[in-house]
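Project outcomes to date are best conveyed with an example. Our students and postdoctoral researchers have been running inverse folding experiments weekly, and each run begins with a structure described purely in tokens. The record below, which covers 89 residues, was selected by the lab manager from last quarter's runs and is presented without edits.
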């Protein structure tokens, strides 16, 4: 199985994201302490390969819709993402 490599910003978002229940965009904004534009960019980069899912479903998050949306970890990648968050490169 291919090892997932993540950036520091992706690591910050994953640490802020509850792996079991997910979080709203507003909660992620508070917990990750990233600027809204950066957070949306990071979420979109993780939604592309399917690591994170947005509810209600959308191809990508926008500044207008991310605060009310819920973001969950894709269960298919949960263990790999936990390992990636724990690893230091």
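After processing, the design step wrote out the following sequence:
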């Amino acid at each position: 199985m291919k090892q997932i490599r993540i950036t520091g910003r992706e690591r910050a978002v994953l640490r802020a994201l509850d792996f079991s229940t997910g979080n709203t965009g507003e909660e992620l904004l508070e917990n990750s302490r990233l600027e809204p534009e950066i957070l949306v960019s990071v979420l979109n980069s993780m939604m592309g390969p399917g690591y994170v899912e947005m509810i209600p479903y959308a191809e990508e998050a926008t500044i207008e819709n991310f605060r009310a949306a819920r973001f969950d970890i894709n269960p298919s990648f949960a263990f790999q993402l936990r390992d990636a968050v724990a690893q230091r490169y």
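The two ends are 19 Å apart (CA to CA). The chain has one domain: 8-86. The training component of this project remains on track.
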